[in-house]
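Table S2 (text version). Query chain:
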Amino acid sequence: MNSSLHVSDGLKQPIVYSRKDHIISRKQISNAALRVLYGLNDNGYRACLVGGGVRDLLLGRAPKDFDIATDARPEKIREIFKNSRLIGRRFRLAHVRFGRELIEVATFRSSHEISSPDAGISQQGQILRDNVYGTLEEDVWRRDFTINALYYDIRDFSVIDYVGGVGDLRQGVIKLIGKPVVRYREDPVRMLRAIRFAAKLGFNITRSTMSPIPSLIHLLNEISPARLFDETMKLFNAGHALAVYERLFEVGLFTLLYPSTGRIQNSELDYHNKFVRKALLNTDHRILHDKSVNPAFLISVFLWYPMKTIYSAEIHRGKNRKDALRIASEKILREQARVLAIPRRFTQTVRDIWELQARFSNRSPKRAARLLEVPKFRAAYDFLALRAGDDRASLKLVDWWTRFQSADSEERKRLLQEVKHTEMRRKK
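Corresponding structure-token output:
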């Protein structure tokens, strides 16, 4: 790529890649995004595609969505686009909707002035509000990673690079802009984002970006459980969950997100890891083939062995199995809620999956047929299949339910008779 240099208000001079020097074409940008870009431009404002959209286009990938940055204030964006609404307190921006497509439009940000009523930084350095507006030249330094700080300018179709993002894309590296410790303190979620982007793109995280993470993990305790839950959804439901899990576990971030995992006994840790890895591979496979996934399924997997530990303790105290399971489920989900604000619809599904595991062993004619009608049967069956592992008896149980689901009425009768005869022989 050839480049020309533009002076930029005393900041580092950017590399500006002209249209002939990059592969981005307007044909690759959604009509909705183009309408917003040109709408802002026609009203006298600067408008650029920014972030993951530019990154993915330069990598030859199809972007999941398109984000736009502009010098128009949020209120002006709302005036120009009647199909928009303003959202956010911590970070004020506009959502412009075209049918099912949502275009996020943010105003260029400037550096923080603590005295400003539109900015706020905690004593630990965390950004509490980020609504100090500025120019593109200032906005670039507010972004997190170099590969996400590239701007596609609709005025001349150029790509503007202040931070060496194009070079880092070529080298396949994730690198924070600025001093990593400071940037992580500003927003601890950047630690999770570094892992996510590395897994998604198959990139390496630079040593300077990676090395501070283990000592700063505790900062995530300052993030709201609701926001952390949203971030975990991005981590594990984008088609690269296994790679994310391995990187999170390596630096200790997974244990922060799921603290009960740290209490798993060494004798069960290997089983837990195999179980989780199989579930993550299955999730990635489903997403790869455009099949739906329920976030509750992975949550039930992550918490299964910690829940079993509590369950066993309750049984030892004399509780019956049903009460022990109820108590263990409530305790582990209540503890987890302190870290991740898991919506009730998901926690109920987790409980259903766990509760149904015991019912698979009861294969009387009425109960077996009734179990097939339970709404969460399929998720619970998939969970059972993952649990089976190398255990011969469990594998036989999974095989029986696999055949029973797809069998016609006559075959089901035969399968139920088979169970009855097996039970009779066992009693003898």
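Notes on Table S2: The first strand starts at residue 4 and ends at 5. Residues 1-171 form a domain with the Beta Polymerase; domain 2 fold (CATH 3.30.460.10).
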